[in-house]
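Quick question, first post here. What does this chain look like in 3D?
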Amino acid sequence: MMNSETLLAMTHPALAFVMGIVFVAVWAGFKQFSSFVYFGLAYISYGLGMTLQTLLWPSDEVLNVLLATLLYFGAVLLFYNGLVRYGGAKPKWLPVAALTVLALVLRIYFTDVLSDRIVRIYVLNGFIAIIFALGLWQIRQHFRRSALDTLMFVLTGTFIVAGLLRSIWAPTTHEDSFGYDGTFYWLLTQVSLNVFLVVFALLLILVAGSRALEKMRLLGWHDGLTGLSNRTGFREKVGRHMRRQPGFSLILIDLDHFKQVNDRYGHSVGDQLLVLLAERIQHSTRLGDVSARYGGEEFMLFLPNTDEAAAVGVAERLRRDIELVDLDAVAPGWQCTASFGVAEFPPGHTVNDAYKTVDRLLYEAKYRGRNCVVSASAERDARSI
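> Answer (accepted):
Ran it through. Tokens below.
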């Protein structure tokens, strides 16, 4: 029958097993969280090592310590791999391998040759601290600056410091190298490790959940065919720009006779044409501009801090680029053209108001024979004649 100390000690591997299974389950359901499988296996490996040492199986001390050491070290390496991949960096296996070999040799020496549990504590905690610190250093510039990510970063750093402090404190808690079980140091170690296991796992799952929701939201802002923003994404992004930079120009683009392309050559060719136009638009944009497939064969280009003359220049260059699109391989004899409506808007205009204006200008371009650019000033000049 297990005593109270053994039962308390067994909560540690039990929690590790549960959290490890949760990590693997999340990874199995959401393959984009590839680092989770490493975290899961790290938890399980650590739980196995703790189980062996808590239940004293195998009973031979040297063999018990060696098997547990291999499982602990495996857990540390898996955790490091997961941490670095989660942060968007690549593992540095050469220094990690060198540290692992050195730590293993020391652990074996102070188990089989010169048995000293205190030194083994130094070696294990020092190895964990160095490997985890290396991981944090690698991802310091990659991890996202959200509150949850920062908290997880700080928690891992605190765990490193706590491990080093436990190593320093260990020799003061017992007179010999095997007598610290049941001391306050032993109790604090069990509780602190349990807290870290649970809190780190929960934080990581919360962060992953928030990232998944953010990714779903961003996917909902983009057009699946062209990769440009869709109408929802366009309005959201433009709304942010307008709060900071209220003056802007807007270009509305519509492919001429697009329905005939679909009817004559098929929707697959029509899709290719939309993708080609999207590429031309992306090549014409600057950092800070917002481009979108606004609906069907209609595209929108938002140009912050741009006057109408500059916007007309962008539209004309884009119109000429579209004329040069070669469709002979998929649509022999088809001349690709587009019509444009362009206008500049001072502060105070909403996206809806701006769209109505450029939509009217676009239809004026269609009326004039297509394959042309009509701006608000040009329309005013035409009316004054």
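The chain is about 65% helix and 10% strand.
The beta strands are 248-255, 290-295, 298-304, 338-345, 373-375.
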